[in-house]
Amino acid sequence: MKMLRLRRQTDDLLDDTTRTLDRQVQAFLAKTRVPFRRQPGLGERLLMQAEQLGMTTGVVLLGCVGLGAGLIYLLEPQGGPQRRARLREKARAYWHPTATSPGSQEALRRAWRIFQGHDTQRVDAHTRKPAQAKAWYAEPANYDSNVLYSEPFVTREEAEAWAKAQEKLKMPWRFFQGHDTQRVDAHTRKPAQAEAWYAEPGNYDSNVLYSEPFVTREEAEAWTKAQEKK
Length: 230
Known about the structure:
The chain is 48% helix and 9% strand. The chain is mainly α and 230 residues long. It has a domain at 102-228.
C-alpha cells in the first residue's frame, strides 16, 4: 500500500510539473508572437513619403503624369531619336566641359578666328544668305573669301571643337546622305535633310552634323578637298 501511495504522489507531481511548464511555454509564445502585417507597395510608399513631406495626392499624381509625358516625348518613334540626341549632347556638355590647356587654347586663337554672325558680312556657302547674327562661326586666321568657312554653331565651344577637328583633316572622309544618319544640324538642331549629302572625318564622333548639306556627292567631295588645302 505504501508503494502505491508513493507512486501516485510521484505521478501527481509529474502531472503538475508538466501542466506548469506547458502554461509557461504558451504564455511566452503569446508574448513573442508577431502578427503578419501586409507590406505596402511602391505606390503606397511613395504616397506615404509625399504626405510626410506635406505634398498632396493630387501633386504626386500630377508629377507622375508629367514624368509619363516626358518619357513618351523622348521615346516616341518620330522625333524621339533627335530629342534623345539633343538631350545627350546637353548632358555631355554639362558633365564633361571641354578641358583645354592655356597653351592649346592660345594656339587655336592664332590659327583660327571664332566669331558671331553679327561680326561679319560673309554669306552662307550653300544658301548665300547672310550669317545668322547669334550663331558662332570658325575660319582659319588667313581665310579670305566672301562666303562663310564653317557652318553655324549654337555655342562658341562647338565652333572651337569643330576647328580642332579641322586640324586632323588628313584622315579619311566619310560621305553620306541625310537619311543615313541620326545626327542633327549644328545650329537649328533639325534632322539632316534626307536627300542632301554630308561629309565628316572618319574618326568624327558627335551628335551634330560636321558639314553643311550639299546637293550632290561631288559638291561634298569638292568641299573636303578645299578643306585639306587650308
